[in-house]
Amino acid sequence: MTENFLTKIDVDKEKRAELEKQRREAETELMENRIVEAQKDYEIWRKKVLNCAAELEKRITEHDTAAIQCGMVKPEITLQVIHDAEADLEIAKMHMEESRNTLCAIKLQLRQQQAAGEELAGLKVTVKELDDVLLRDVGNVIRECGKWPLIIDPSAQAATFLRYRDTNYLQALNPREMEAEKVRMALVGAIRFGKPLVLDMMEVDMFDTVSARMDEIYPGLMADIMDKSIMKEEKYIKLLKQEDGVDYDKNRFNDARTQNFKFFIITKNPSPPDDLVDLSYLIRIHIPTA
């Protein structure tokens, strides 16, 4: 009797465990479907922000060109167009932020469901530690890990820190700074003089967009940067042009400097795309509360 009773208890436990497993799997599937829909909504607004930023830059250029070339009888007209474009951009950013917050919240729920108490991945550092971690690379962690840092910093303090250091700094949301020739020269200069190239994506996930722009320089350039092979002579000489001048002649490049080249990506997005995370050495900026 006792043996049968214990067997029944074990069977009941297994049934309950199986039902619990099925329930969790169903919840996970539901959550993953919600993530897919939220990701689609976020992508719509991300692209809207890019389009609005390009439109604003276009209107500013038109205004400046008209003012320089022929003067302006009614500058208030073009200024109003600029203000309207600025308003459109801010509205798009607001919607993008809302959609991203929704996406992040659902992802957080899923993470909590799958692994309660699990901390966000990435090395936590303060802004004061960035000089040692990024620029000096104490311990040669970045040099030896095979990946470049992806710096997650909603506070934007890391961006300010790096902008005012000896870096070549590109803001991905600025169409002028993302012109292929501007990107090429920023990269060439960073390699030639052995300093960091910083790509600030701000609050928009633009890695694929920037990669496509780099493909205009030569196909596969972003892949060469990310796997660090761009530091090899047979790679970086593909970037050089005769009109770059004597300072950028291939004979002026030397390993002592080119091996100090670094590539940093900054994002305000606390949950960047998984494929970018997989390619990167993840760093999260920690802001002390006291």
Automatic annotation (TrEMBL):
Coiled-coil intervals, chain numbering: 9-41
InterPro entries (alphabetical): AAA_9, P-loop_NTPase
Keywords: Coiled coil
Name the record gives this protein: Dynein heavy chain ATP-binding dynein motor region domain-containing protein
Domain Dynein heavy chain ATP-binding dynein motor region: 134-272
Keyword Coiled coil recorded: yes
Keyword Coiled coil: yes
